[in-house]
Design a protein that fits this description.
223 residues; elongated; three-stranded antiparallel sheet; mainly alpha; two-stranded antiparallel ribbon
């Protein structure tokens, strides 16, 4: 009786071990390799992290993750000032930073979780709108408060949206042109070239990828 019990237990353990090894091989090795192979064959750009490169081939970021364009923070400054030579992304309230990534802390990505009538959120929007009007008005171009689009003063659900609306990009054109000594029409063409329309002509909204636009702008500046 005892020998039968030990033999039965050994068979069960052996079957379990074989199943573990087989599933580990299939699910942990074969399946990931197959999925990765298909992804890199059919969607190579996305499978490799959607890297964005400049004219020299240097990777400058991912087209799927937003990033800020700020000046080096001054001593004692709570938050760095935006570098107005570049197109600016949407606000990113609610996100923190860390010693590795001082621009966006991906672990803390998310919305502000504040309701539309929250006084702090209303204050953020009011201050952001005033800053947008001030920063983007030039000697020859005045931004009207009514022309400021919603995405210029509100963050996205993740806080990491890499896109802005064509309206917000157009609002920044005169400031970017003036700061970089470029013609307004030249910068407008850059925006037009990096504007993506609705998916299949009806899904989503037209959008501009800020990283790709600024990468093209830097290539133009460098000549």
């Amino acid at each position: 009786m005892t020998n039968t019990s030990v033999s039965s237990t050994a068979r069960v353990l052996g079957a379990g071990l074989r199943a573990l090894l087989a599933l580990t091989l299939v699910c942990g090795v074969i399946y990931p390799l197959a999925v990765t192979g298909v992804a890199r064959t059919l969607f190579r750009d996305r499978a490799d992290g959607s890297e964005t490169k400049d004219a020299s081939g240097q990777v400058v970021g991912s087209s799927l993750i937003g990033q800020r364009y700020d000046l080096p923070p001054e001593k004692g400054e709570e938050s760095p000032a935006p570098d107005l030579r570049w197109f600016q992304p949407r606000p990113s309230h609610g996100l923190g930073t860390n010693s590795v990534n001082t621009r966006y802390a991906l672990i803390l990505s998310g919305a502000t979780n504040r309701s539309g009538d929250n006084e702090e959120l209303i204050g953020w929007v009011r201050d952001a709108k005033a800053a947008v009007v001030k920063d983007n008005s030039t000697a020859t171009y005045e931004v009207r408060p009514s022309a400021v689009p919603p995405d210029a003063v509100t963050s996205s659900g993740s806080g990491l949206d890499p896109h802005i609306s064509p309206a917000y990009a157009a609002l920044q054109v005169h400031r970017v042109a003036e700061r970089n000594g470029l013609g307004v029409r030249q910068v407008e063409r850059l925006v037009e070239d990096h504007t993506t329309g609705r998916l299949l002509g009806f899904m989503g909204e037209p959008r501009v990828n800020v990283l790709e636009l600024n990468t093209a702008l830097r290539d133009v500046i460098r000549g």
